Amino acid sequence: AIDINKLRDLTGVITIDPGYKNSGSCTSEITFLDGEEGILRYRGYSIEDLAEKASFLEVSYLLIFGELPTAAQLEDFENNIRKHSLVNEEMKNIIDGFPKTAHPMGVLSALTSALTAFNPKAVNVDNEKEMYEAICKTMAKFLVIATWTYRKSMGYPLNYYDNTKGYVESFMQLMFKLPTGPYAANPVIVNALDKLFILHADHEQNCSTSTVRMVGSSHAGLFASVSAGVSALWGPLHGGANQAVLEMLEEINKDGGDTDKFLAKAKDKNDPFRLMGFGHRVYKNFDPRAKIIKKAATEVLETLGVEDPILDIARKLEKAALEDEYFKSRNLYPNVDFYSGIIYRALGIPTDMFTVMFAIGRLPGWIAQWKEMRENKEPIGRPRQIYTGHPLREFKSNK
Ligand code: ACO
User: Fold this and answer.
1) pLDDT by residue for the chain (399 residues), tens digit each?
2) Which parts of 235-353 fold into alpha helices (H)?
3) Which residues are catalytic?
4) Which of 183, 242, 270, 388 could form an SS bridge with 354, CB 3.0 to 4.6 Å?
5) Of 104, 103, 133, 105, residue with least CA distance to 119
6) Is residue 391 packed enough to be buried (19+ CB in 10 Å), middle (13-18) or exposed (0-12)?
């Protein structure tokens, strides 16, 4: 592996690369991405294999610790997450302070940051046991508060993690269990969600992950770094695109389903409208996750017996865009967000929770990247600039 600290000696010249289109910020052993070929692998395993054969917690363990867990390791991981799943009751006062209409991503970012108030001790990253506990704590509490943002927006009482259930099943219970009566999650839904979380779990140095690494590089704690990642993910050019896709498809549907009209808008350089869910900074080919999700969306809708005109519009739009010279010449293909919203919608998850779903899936990736950054003893992230402002000016008040 390259010693990142040694690279510092070679950086005498400042390069300008807005958006870091060609700048590597680190070396990493976590995720391999080939945008030209449309390949995605976590720790050397293909995304197709993992989505088909592994569970979300297994993949989380793989990303964070580098190898697939044994049965005993997985059980211990799951049990430790359960152990940490209680969230301080005072956190509820913080939630109560938000208006019901607050966007769940804003609430999630604030609550994640607020967890530092109840877990103030800085984790010694050189201590394996402390790191393990901090990781399990984050996996547990983040899931609980993520669902609380939904319960709050609905005005429902808050639920607790079910220690007899798996991670994804418990998520369903946290979200949807009513105060009275038992709750059994539909296995088709649990399976689809497991897959969706796996597909979102890591994607090398994307905007939110780079943010987590950058914030963590100042030795800010895991909760503070993850909270910053949530804010970065929220934007419509990143994770917020899944909400924007569904809103766009709904708008097309309401407008009579004329996909050509919206395609023309997306191509019009005087119109700020972009085809949401299309294009990617790195993929210049099919996003391999989009292929898996498209198939899963069809399966989920069929199994649940849901007929959704939005799926037909999405298919029509995708086909038209893929045949269009504008999209072809710019290598614009559907990305992970194009079909995920259709599944979430079929599962009864409201649109403004879509990006929270993405955040739950991305959490193990953020943790793995934060851990790797600290273990590699990376220097504080501090880009340079080329100053283009005024030269020295004499102070004369404008008052
Ligand atoms: N619709 C219409 N035109 C597009 C789109 C789109 N969705 N995406 C890119 N283009 C065009 C641009 O206008 C530009 O055209 P030009 O060369 O004529 O100026 C060209 O394609 C290149 O686009 P850039 O914006 O330079 O590409 P960049 O790598 O900076 O942006 C991004 C990538 C942000 C994903 C962009 O494709 C986009 O805005 N897509 C829609 C939002 C979206 O789906 N985001 C989710 C990304 S995946 C994720 O975060 C999980």
Assistant:
1) 566 666 555 556 788 999 999 999 999 999 999 999 999 999 999 999 999 999 999 999 999 999 999 999 999 999 999 999 999 999 999 999 999 999 999 999 999 999 999 988 888 999 999 999 999 999 999 999 999 999 999 999 999 999 999 999 999 999 999 878 888 888 888 999 999 999 999 999 999 999 999 999 999 999 999 999 999 999 988 888 888 899 999 999 999 999 999 999 999 999 999 999 999 988 888 889 998 988 888 888 888 888 888 888 998 999 999 999 999 999 999 988 888 988 898 888 999 899 999 999 999 999 999 999 999 999 999 999 989 999 999 999 999
2) 241-254, 259-267, 288-304, 309-323, 325-329, 337-346
3) 280, 337
4) 242
5) 133
6) exposed
Ligand 1: residues whose CB is within 6 Å? 237-239, 241, 266, 274-281, 330, 332, 335-337
Nearest CA to ligand 1 atom 20: 330
ipTM of the complex: 0.94
Length of the chain: 399
